[in-house]
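Notebook, p. 212. Picked up where the previous page left off. The plan for this session was modest: take the two constructs that came back from the sequencing core last week, fold each one, and keep the raw output in the notebook itself so nobody has to go hunting through shared drives later. Recording the first one now, exactly as returned: residue sequence, then the structure token string.
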Amino acid sequence: MNQTKKTVLLAALFVLLLGGAAVGYKFLSDQYTPPTEGVVLPTPDESEKTDKETMVEETETVEETISETIAETEPPLEPAPDFSVLNTAGEEVNLSDFKGKPVILNFWASWCGPCKSELPAFNTAHTVYGENVEFLMINITDGVEETIEGVTEFVADGEYTFPLYFDTTTSAAAAYGAYSIPLTVFVDAKGNLLGGHRGAMNYETLEQYIDILLTYYAEP
């Protein structure tokens, strides 16, 4: 399967997985427009060709036509907006620091019920896939409802081992339209924005996204 077909396949898969989720950007699923003209099959001279020869030629013609059409409509990927957050050591970390691996961003808060419901799934996913995928569990630390001390204690009590980051200025949340959480965003190894999922996920759904990332978007 060539790269163009892979890209369009991924667009279709993200459409199925994302449903109505969006984070305010033109993701793959929004940009791709199917061709408006149908594919016309050739009509060879039946007296000169066998059924098998005709079928092979028709198949090759259709594949070439589809490939050309897809190449003309292949959507460009957009760079994921960069941002700065703090790690648990108080150091400033940028999204761009993680280029080279696929990245999963998760915006959450400890007061958010749906957020808390999916944290075990993310913790398990990090344990299983952490060597190949970067997980940025970004707490929206506004200093009022969420504080660094309170969130750190919450994560410790839950025995979560995923990488924890604090969005103390809420600039990262603003960059991705995280006005409703939980929000999960997927970035490829080159730093391009692929899509997002708004709302809680179970482990099975999260694993489907990860499988797509590792199958098609793990190479920088």
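Okay, moving on. Second construct, recorded in the same format:
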Amino acid sequence: MVIANIISYILVLLGALNWGLYGIFDFNLVGWIFQGPRSVGSIILYVIITLAALWLIISPIISGNGLRLKMRDKEEREEALENR
């Protein structure tokens, strides 16, 4: 779950950066990378970013412990290794 949280944060930050660039400079970074804002690649990335944002909303509810980016203690790390 920690890895999913980190990946989701990176994707949501990419989405926020794209919105900031679009709002300030009228430049769509994702659209530029994929040669158009409605290209297949752009749409797929927008959907992935949306799913990452939804994950960040529901993951604290699922875990019951709030959002975590790292394991809290040594026992938790050992437990995660055992569950592999």
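Notes on construct two before I forget. The helical segments are 2-25, 29-33, 40-63, 74-82.
Flagging for discussion at group meeting.
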